[in-house]
Specification:
Bound molecules: 1-O-phosphono-beta-D-fructopyranose
Catalytic activity: D-fructose 6-phosphate + L-glutamine = D-glucosamine 6-phosphate + L-glutamate
Helix content: 40-55%
CATH architecture of the largest domain: 3-Layer(aba) Sandwich
Order of helices and strands: HHEHEHEHEHEHHHEHEEHEEH
Subunit structure: Homodimer.
Radius of gyration: 20 Å
Keywords: Aminotransferase, Cytoplasm, Glutamine amidotransferase, Repeat, Transferase
Structural class: alpha/beta
Subcellular location: Cytoplasm
Number of domains: 2
EC number: 2.6.1.16
Largest sheet: 5 strands, parallel
């Protein structure tokens, strides 16, 4: 009910949010793992839609280095558990560094991160049963889009019609996510193909690059297949040397202004015998064919595509893990909250 309600949406971040957001000229996001990838996506939104400069860093680096704090910066942490030691340490350091305030985007209401932050937005995804973060990630993205809208609104940097369009599309998001889940059966069929593979590349451009990073992390975490993500334009600067018929190349390719460039990157892969698995909507103009396994996605406005395209990558890791017989909920060597 809060969406698109103007001031009410801003107040969802806390009573002092409107006054504070009006002063914000820069955003510093700090998080770990999957939550870091959510922050990487948010950078595209905050800069493109709300016109606010944004830096994103893993907490395990941020907490130990000398940071030059930009004036009037809001310090944003993202965490499923709210207990990740590096993220908490970064928040505690940030208190004496001159940030305007701290905002936690967190899934657990009773947590250290929420207790110690000035503002909080709870994702309320419910308990994450498995170690690997999945539904927390999608809800973090929605929360970060709301932050983008709230900041754009208060600062007057987001055009009213653009904001209205985004709010309408956010309202339709649950239905779109339902449509995306319909690709489950097609992805289950792909799982067998990965079972004897030792390496996988994930590619994306723009805000789909961090989506590819998250896809690679999920595959590593639960199916133990070595996976790396690259911005597709970086292929020619090294990773192309790895491509052969044993290297699946997974690509998230929603139709947008970058898709033609992405398609030429995919041709470079095909020319070297690489096998493509492509998630794309009908407008992207990518065809199923030799060496290209296409999974059709519903169309969505580009700003929300990262949320939608995360789903098939999570499903892919899940089905590969189930096919290989690894423990999807309790991967070896990993802990739900990394508290040390
Ligand atoms: C960060 C994180 C998760 C990952 C795993 C280990 O946790 O890296 O993204 O899935 O559970 O910790 P959090 O700060 O988001 O709780």
């Amino acid at each position: 009910g809060r969406l698109g309600d103007g001031q009410v949406m801003v107040e969802a971040f806390g009573p002092q949010a409107a006054e504070l957001f009006a002063k914000v000229k820069n955003i510093q996001i700090v998080a770990c793992g999957t939550s870091f990838h959510a922050g990487m996506i948010a950078r595209y939104w905050l800069e493109e839609l709300a016109g606010i400069p944004c830096q994103v860093e893993v907490a395990s680096e941020f907490r130990y280095r000398k940071v030059m704090v930009q004036p009037d910066s809001l310090f944003v942490t993202i965490s499923q558990s709210g207990e990740t030691a590096d993220t908490l340490a970064a928040l505690r350091n940030a208190r004496n560094m001159g940030y305007l305030a701290s905002l936690a985007i967190c899934n657990v209401a009773i947590s250290s991160l929420v207790r110690e932050s000035d503002l909080t937005l709870l994702t309320l995804a419910g308990p994450e049963i498995g170690v690997a973060s999945t539904k927390a990630f999608t809800t973090q993205l929605v929360a970060l889009m709301l932050l983008t809208l709230a900041l754009g609104q208060v600062r007057g940097s987001l055009a009213v019609d653009k904001e209205r369009q985004l709010v309408e599309e956010l309202r339709r998001l649950p239905a779109r996510l339902g449509e995306a889940l319909a690709v489950n059966a097609a992805i289950e069929q792909l799982a067998e193909y990965f079972a004897d593979k030792n390496n996988t590349l994930f590619l994306g451009r723009g805000a789909q690059y961090p989506v590819a990073m998250e896809g690679a992390l999920k595959l590593k975490e639960i199916s133990y297949i070595h996976a790396e993500a690259y911005p597709a334009g970086e292929l020619k600067h090294g990773p192309l040397a790895l491509v052969d018929s044993d290297m699946p190349v997974v690509t998230v390719a929603p139709s947008n202004e970058l898709v033609e460039k992405l398609k030429s990157n995919l041709q470079e892969v095909r020319a070297r015998g690489g096998e493509l698995i492509v998630f794309a909507d009908g407008r992207a103009g990518i065809e199923n064919g030799e060496g290209t396994r296409l999974v059709n996605m519903p169309h969505i406005i580009d700003a929300l595509a990262p949320i939608l395209y995360t789903i098939p990558l999570q499903l892919l890791s899940y089905h590969v893990a189930v096919f290989k017989g690894t423990d999807v909920d309790q991967p070896r060597n990993l802990a739900k909250s990394v508290t040390v």
